[in-house]
């Protein structure tokens, strides 16, 4: 189910249609096919498109999240989506530049005759693959801290054996006081 909207937002009317024509029947069919109890939970935020009295199906319970919880409960809303959009825009501009520089096409001709859903999906794929582990980790650590490592050092390997000669050189340069030996410092 798809509808155009100038602001690229879901409208209340469209959302209600989606619940009645797509979501509700799909959930009911799934529950029946899998011999599951006829009960489902739909969790919604307080977006303007979500009507406060949405109880169209007896088997479907609607739960509304408290106001201002989206940034915490939906980490993709924070930096991941904006990062993805920036990466997509970068890929799009790069492609437009390549086409106008390397072919006889104008940008208008490219848009009209050569930019299609396949090209768009490839750029979406490239942009998503460019989202870093660090960005995803940063977004998820507020909601589910146990799911991410304490610290992520991408592309950085560290071994204590690598720093031993440096430490010994510094200690030797500074002079040694007391009865500590080099072996004692390494252990």
Tell me about this structure.
Mean pLDDT is 77; it is low at 156-161, 170-179 and 182-187. Strands 1-2 form a two-stranded parallel ribbon. It is built from 8 helices and 2 strands, in the order αββααααααα. The protein has 2 domains: 1-68, no CATH class; 70-149, no CATH class. It is mostly helical and 187 residues long. It is extended, with a radius of gyration of 28 Å. Residues 2-140 form the DDE-1 domain. One of its GO terms (molecular function) is DNA binding. This is Tigger transposable element-derived protein 1.
Strand order of the largest sheet: 1-2
Rg estimate, integer Å: 28 Å
Q: Tell me the count of domains.
A: 2
Query: What is the residue-mean pLDDT, rounded to a whole number?
Result: 77
Strand elements, count:
2
- Tally the helices: 8
Which term fits the overall shape? extended
Structural class: mainly alpha
Kindly estimate the percentage of residues that lie in beta strands according to DSSP: 5-15%
Poorly predicted residue ranges: 156-161, 170-179, 182-187
- C-alpha termini separation: 66 Å
Question: Strand-and-helix sequence, N→C?
Answer: HEEHHHHHHH
Reported for the largest beta sheet, the result is: 2 strands, parallel
The helicity comes to 40-55%
Quickly list its features.
187 residues; 8 helices; disordered C terminus; DDE_SF_endonuclease_dom; CenT-Element_Derived; Tigger transposable element-derived protein 1; DNA binding
